[in-house]
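Researcher: We're reviewing a set of sequences before deciding which ones to prioritize for further study. For each one, I'd like a predicted 3D structure that I can look through quickly. This is Sugar ABC transporter permease. If possible, include the structure in token form so it fits the rest of the review sheet.
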Amino acid sequence: MQTTHPAPPMATTRNPRERAGRLLQQHGALIVLAVLLVVGTVAFDSFTTPANLGNIATASSFLAIIAIGMTFVIISGGIDLSVGSLFVLGGVLAAYGSRHGAAVALGLPLVVCGAFGLVQGLIIARTRMAPFIVTLAGLLAARGLMLSLTDEGATTYLVEDDLFARIGQGAILDVGYPFFIMLAILAVAAVFLQRTGFGQNVYAIGGNEDAAALMGVPVARTKVVVYLVSGLLAGLAGALNAARLSSGVTILGIGLELDVIAAVVIGGTLLTGGAGALGGTIAGALLLGVIQNLINQVGGLTSSFQQVVSGAFLAVVVVAHRILGGVRRET
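Model: Here's the predicted structure for Sugar ABC transporter permease, in token form for your review sheet.
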């Protein structure tokens, strides 16, 4: 009689080390965020007050809105350096347009910043130029347009429409309207990324663009759309920020693109493309907001210290991604 032996474990079975590594990559930002919330609660009495938590949520929502668009871009294997300048430009255009009503205040930055994203996407998709170079040019062009509209930053436009101002300044239970707008955008974006063919195309292009093209994925069209979305959301975030501040402040947004990229990468999206999730991006944005708030709570530390902490987090995350990639290849 022939002796039967149990079948060997499938090659796709993940060992505990790989499972732990994947968990840290996907949910590391959320874990660190939870730890910092506990630390803040223990260390500062005012940290968990509704007003302070609402301030963190509202302040983080602008970064999170831009980061949602950046997540699509990075998953597709690209990068968008223009979002910081588009954020400022969107705020200036919104404040300028508010004299004609809330519809113009919201529509004008969406049209202009969306046009920037569309043109950048077309150039990247049709010429196959490096996204870094194209969006760097977009950064300079958007900043130049903003400076020309504000007389080299000497003119600050004030928000003149009360309805538009309430969109940025209104709140529910101490949480500003921009946070709820961000949640609505997140819900829609998550459906498109996870439940539609477009989202699968984004992942496929980031994983291997040539293979995606051979499978019939509309590479050029998908790239154009992701950069269009990135431009639109940067402009929207700028408009909401102008509504909150009641003016189109020209000094904000300098270097914001780096904070956006940090939030996306800290949230678990690979800079090389092909992997990532919007939930991690939001956790990364909130994490940076909590760090800034804790620095303010400590006192004696300048706000620029946040850049040091964010840079350290980003370095750790990139190294961790490298190590986790090696673990998956070994298994």
